[in-house]
Write a sequence for this structure.
């Protein structure tokens, strides 16, 4: 199976500047419903904040989201992958790093985000097609 990340990444993704507040991130997470926000510093990819970051770094430790700098809950440096990278390599990177989302970046520009769901859906399609092919060749009709 050889599929490029660029063909299966989400091309629409939420972003926010590093100067924003944690409350702004929470509102954006709620509005977008993707579970993550890419944090930019002067328009360049800087890090990522997930819904889990809000729970574990703000709520669980009873920090005030209005007083906590976004930098304090942002996962940085950002782990990225090239748009031409194979989906299998993206999956291996995600598994090795224990992450579910990887921004797709080339030359300092973010083009999308590949998620474990994107990969699982593509693998499901591949397996489904393979099983159908096996059945078609094993049990020809007519």
């Amino acid at each position: 199976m050889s599929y490029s990340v660029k063909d299966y990444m989400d091309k629409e993704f939420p972003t926010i500047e590093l100067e924003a507040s944690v409350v702004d991130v929470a509102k954006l997470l709620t509005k977008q419903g993707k579970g993550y926000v890419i944090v930019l510093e002067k328009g360049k990819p800087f890090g990522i904040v997930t819904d889990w970051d809000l729970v574990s770094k703000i709520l669980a430790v009873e920090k005030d989201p209005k007083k906590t700098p976004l930098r304090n809950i942002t996962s940085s440096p950002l782990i990225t992958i090239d748009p031409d990278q194979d989906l299998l390599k993206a999956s291996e990177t995600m598994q090795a790093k224990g992450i579910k989302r990887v921004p797709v970046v080339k030359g300092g520009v973010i083009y999308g985000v590949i998620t474990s769901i994107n990969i699982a859906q593509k693998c499901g399609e591949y397996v489904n097609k393979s099983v159908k092919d096996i059945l078609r060749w094993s049990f020809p009709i007519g």
Summary: The domain at 5-138 is CATH 3.10.580.10 (CBS-domain). The chain is about 40% helix and 20% strand. The first helix runs from residue 22 to 32.
